[in-house]
Design brief:
Elements: E1 6-10, H1 16-26, E2 31-35, E3 46-48, H2 52-56, E4 61-63, H3 87-90, E5 99-102, H4 107-115, E6 119-122, H5 127-148, E7 157-161, H6 165-176, E8 180-185, H7 188-196, E9 200-203, H8 204-209, E10 216-219, H9 228-232, E11 238-242, E12 256-260, H10 264-268, H11 270-289
Parallel strand pairs: 1-2, 1-4, 2-3, 4-5, 5-6, 7-8, 7-10, 8-9, 10-11, 11-12
Helix pairs in contact: 1-11, 5-6, 5-11
Length: 304
């Protein structure tokens, strides 16, 4: 059984409070070194560090946020952190055989982990985690709709782009609240699921070419698919709620009200979302401690 004397926690939002609490319960003798998270105050059992290098040095396990990165090159950390963390440098501060954990892992970090003989686990890759995490995301998205729309949900046509875990949780809740829900997805299987959930359906390619009128458009697709031309065809004052990264670079048309809402679980239900992530993190750490390292090395992805 591998021992853990120090755990480094880098970056993170309000969910980090519950992650730290869970780590402390599971490893009460381990030092918790924290850098770059957005918590206003750390618990007494955790110690903040001035640099990320200090936090990582000597740690047997490192915990990174979800998503690990937003720009593909540096770690997602709090805006006022005093350092930028290049992803390629992270693994160099862990001894060979150590464990690094993160959510929605970019290929560069997986490559660096292999080159430095560091185990890497994507704690967000598990379908159970994504399914559970979709609930606070969906609730937060519904709250945005209720707050921002000038009409009640039964008078609303809502389009959801994509039909993964978060989209499905959102669609079911909007449908139960009386909204007309249209799911726009690529895969026929996803459209079949949406139809079974009570949604109207349309192929994503068809919607992008000829957008259907709606009061609100939720995007859950984590790659750019929407263009200014497509959005210009939507009704005046249509609300676009960006839950992923589906907007191409360029100016947003004047007819669109854009709300960027990544990381909703950390904003709307941080304790619930933090417990979900912590359970996944502890599960990966237990496997690593038992020497089942190969089973925790996996690629992952999804919505944060």
């Amino acid at each position: 059984m591998r021992t853990i004397q120090k755990i480094a926690v880098l970056g993170g939002d309000s969910r980090t409070e519950m992650i730290l609490a869970g780590l402390h319960r599971a490893y009460p003798e381990a030092a918790l070194a924290v850098w770059g998270c957005t918590l206003p105050e750390l618990p007494l059992y955790a110690r903040g560090t001035k640099t990320w290098q200090e936090a990582m040095t000597g740690a047997q396990a490192g915990v990174l946020p979800v998503p690990v990165t937003r720009d593909g090159e540096t770690l997602s950390a709090c805006p006022h952190a005093n350092q930028t963390v290049p992803l390629e440098a992270l693994c160099r501060f862990l001894r060979p055989g150590s464990l690094l954990l993160g959510g929605i892992v970019p290929p560069v970090l997986l490559r660096m982990a292999g080159e430095n003989a560091v185990y890497f686990a994507d704690y967000y890759a598990d379908g159970v985690v994504q399914t559970l995490n979709a609930v606070p995301t969906a609730e937060g998205a519904v709250a945005i709709a209720i707050r921002e729309l000038p009409v009640i949900l039964p008078e609303t046509t809502a389009v959801i782009a994509g039909y993964g875990h978060c989209a499905r949780a959102l669609a079911v809740r909007l449908h139960l609240l009386g909204a007309r829900v249209i799911a726009a997805a690529r895969r026929p299987e996803a459209l079949a699921e949406a139809a079974c959930d009570g949604c109207e359906t349309v192929l994503l390619s068809s919607f992008l070419e000829n957008p259907q009128p709606c009061q609100i458009l939720f995007n859950t697709i984590p790659v750019p698919v929407f263009t200014a031309e497509c959005l210009s065809a939507l009704p005046e004052d249509c609300l676009f709620v960006e839950l992923a990264q589906g907007l191409a670079e360029g100016e947003i048309p004047d007819n669109i009200r854009l709300i960027r809402a990544p990381g909703l679980p950390g904003k709307t239900a941080p304790h619930t979302a933090g417990r979900i992530l912590c359970d996944a993190i502890l599960g990966k750490m237990e496997l690593w401690q038992k020497g089942e390292g190969e089973s925790v090395l996996r690629k992952g992805g999804g919505e944060a």
